[in-house]
Amino acid sequence: MTHLPPIRGEHLSTALSLAADGVPALPLRAGKATFGNCRRCSGNACGGRPNMKTPGPCACPKPCHGWAAATTDPDVLTSPAWARAWREAAAVAYHPGGAGWTVVDLDNTEAIAWARETLPATRIVRTTRGEHWIYQGVMPSRNAVRPDVDIKSAMQYARWLGPGTGTITTLPDAVRDLVVKQPAPVRPVTVPAPAAGGACPHRTPAYLNRGLAMAEQRITEAPSAVHATVFATFLAVLSTHGRCGCLTEAHTERLFAAAQAKGESPRHCADAWANALARLGM
Fold first, then answer.
1. What is the dihedral of CA 91, 97, 100, 103, to 10 degrees?
2. Are 123 and 133 in contact (CB under 8 A)?
3. Which of 160, 168, 199, 227 could disulfide-pair with 92, CB 3.0 to 4.6 Å?
4. Nearest of 220, 204, 206 to residue 255 by alpha carbon
5. pLDDT for res 4
6. Residue 223: pLDDT band by 50, 70, 90 thresholds?
7. 103, 133 Cβ separation under 8 angstroms
8. Which of 87, 164, 98 is closest to 137 using CA atoms?
């Protein structure tokens, strides 16, 4: 008869206490790693939580799928299917986003000094290398938002190191802004100048400016199919304004910036512009 080691009572007790407070908890292996998917769910064969980016619809009873296994259900935490994980657990983790929180993970004294100068005071938890600053609010998670600073919130887990000190305050814009992608430098493709003596058909610059504003609006308001919308918009602008030589780099920069704000890369912008030129034989 195989004798199993006892469940690490302190870890399970911590998880149950967190769950009672509405904080989704899960066990961690040594090295702060989550328990890997079971054979049934290996490679997401179960069909649930592809790449651990969404919580469901897998109904595996074991603590699979990394952060998405975190739960506030005491029946799940104490179920026989989780017993082995608690026996092997080296720590407890929680899902900050599931608790409505964002953790700013500061890995050293330099990062802490930056936070003290930049961010509003909030609850602080000491870590082995630095501090966790916990705010009320959920946002996308991202590592290395600046040197030695990570953001742990939605679809991420953090190790539970105690309640910390201080009062949790509202997530500030200064933290949200850390994950906003800055527009890449625009390197537009220019339109050839008109042939000598070519006359501009536009009566006033306002006509061109209005056309560019409408093009920017079309890109900005695109609910889907952004690639196709950007190409169609570039094509429309060039077909109307491209042959007279009125378009300058400043104008194309405006269009590229609008496209990049919708997630297009500088390369995609340049390709769409070049393809539109080719389509029009320019």
1. 70
2. yes
3. 160
4. 220
5. 45
6. confident
7. yes
8. 98
Question: Mean pLDDT of all residues in the chain?
Answer: 83
DSSP designation for 225: -
Two tokens, residue 267: 């390369």
- Beta carbons of 141 and 68 less than 8 angstroms apart: no
Residue 152 pLDDT class (50, 70, 90 cuts): very high
Contact (Cβ atoms closer than 8 angstroms) between residue 191 and residue 238:
yes
Pull the structure tokens for residue 219. 């890109």
Question: Which residues does residue 101 pair with via DSSP β-bridges, in sequence order?
Answer: 136
Looking at the DSSP bridge assignments, the partners of residue 102 are 135
Cis peptide leading into 50, omega within 30 of 0?
no
Rounded to whole angstroms, the Cα distance separating 156 from 68 reads 8
d(C-alpha 132, C-alpha 166), whole Å: 12
pLDDT of residue 199: 52
Identify whether the C-beta of residue 122 lies closer than 8 Å to the C-beta of residue 133: yes
- Nearest-angstrom CA–CA distance, 47 and 37: 12
CB atoms inside a 10 Å sphere around CB 84: 16
What is the token pair recorded at 248? 């300058």
Mean pLDDT of 62-78: 90
Higher pLDDT pick, 236 / 82: 82
Q: How far apart are CA 254 and CA 170, in angstroms?
A: 35
Taking Cα atoms as reference points, which of 105, 161, 172, 182 lies closest to residue 139? Answer: 172
229 vs 219: CA distance, rounded Å: 6
**pLDDT tens string 176-220:** 999 876 555 545 555 555 544 455 555 566 777 888 888 888 888
Tokens of 194: 């008109």
Query: How far is the C-alpha of 87 from the C-alpha of 71, rounded, in Å?
Result: 18
Token output for 69: 């296994």
CA distances from 152 to 44, 73, 145 (A): 23, 22, 11
